[in-house]
Amino acid sequence: MIHAVLIFNTHGKPRLSKFYTPLSALIQQSLISQIFSLISDRPSGVCNFLDAPDLVFPSRTGTKIGFNLESPYDGTTSFESVRGNGRETEGSSSGISGKGEDDTRVIYRHYATLYFVFVVDGAESELGILDLIQVFVESLDRAFENVCELDLIFHFDDVHHVLSEIIQGGLVLETNIHEITACAQNSLRNRKASSTSSNPLIPNLLTTPSFRPGRSDGGKGWLSVMGV
C-alpha cells in the first residue's frame, strides 16, 4: 500500500502532500520534516529507496499508536519524542511496524529543485514505485507543458487531479501516461465549460470590442454587452 505521496523542494517546503493513511495534522507535519531530513543528506550516488522503521503508520496487523496532541508541535521536536508520549493499542509493544509487509519504506526521485517521495509498505516493489514516480512526473510535464515548481504552487488542484488519476486510496489505478493525460485534460475542459456556463457574461466581456480599457463611452460599454 502507498501511505503517502509528497513533493517538496530542496529547502524542505512542501508543494504537495497526500496521505492515504489517516493521520492528524501534527503527525503529518512531523513526518514531512523527518522524511526531508532522511533524504536531503543522502549523496547523489546512493540508491533512491531506504527503510524507515521510525516512521509511524498503522500496520496491516492492526497495530496503532496513540499520541499526546496536547503539547504543540514547534517544528523541532523529534518524532521519537512524539512517539514516546503515545501509547500502543491493539498490538504488541514492538512498535508500529513489524517485519515484511509492515515495513515502512521511503522511495524518492530528485528532479531539479524538487523531491518526489512515495512512502510505502513492504508489499510494494521499490523498482515499480520508481517507475510510478516517473509516470507521475511525465504526466505533470504533459499537463503543464514543461512543469516547474510554480505550476505546483498556483495549480495545486490540477496536480491533485493528475495524482488521483494514478492513485486512489493508496492503490495504483492507472500507469498509462496517455490515459492519465487525456483524463486530466478532459477534466480541465469540463471545469472551464462549467465556469463559462455559470458566468455567461465573462467570455462576452473579454471578447467584445466595445469592452476595452480607455474607451470614452465608459459604463455604456458594459451596458451594451449586458444587453441593457
TrEMBL record:
Tell me a GO biological process for this protein: intracellular protein transport
| Single GO cellular component term | endomembrane system
The listed locations are: Endomembrane system
Keywords, in A-Z order: Membrane, Protein transport, Transport
Q: Which family does it belong to?
A: Belongs to the adaptor complexes small subunit family.
Q: What is its main location?
A: membrane
Name of the featured protein:
AP-3 complex subunit sigma
Record's InterPro entries? AP_complex_ssu (IPR016635), AP_mu_sigma_su (IPR022775), Clathrin_sm-chain_CS (IPR000804), Longin-like_dom_sf (IPR011012)
| Regions annotated as coiled coil | none
Q: Which Gene3D superfamilies match?
A: 3.30.450.60
Instruction: Give residue ranges for domain AP complex mu/sigma subunit.
Output: 1-54, 102-181
Source organism per entry reads Tremella mesenterica
Record region (Disordered): 79-98
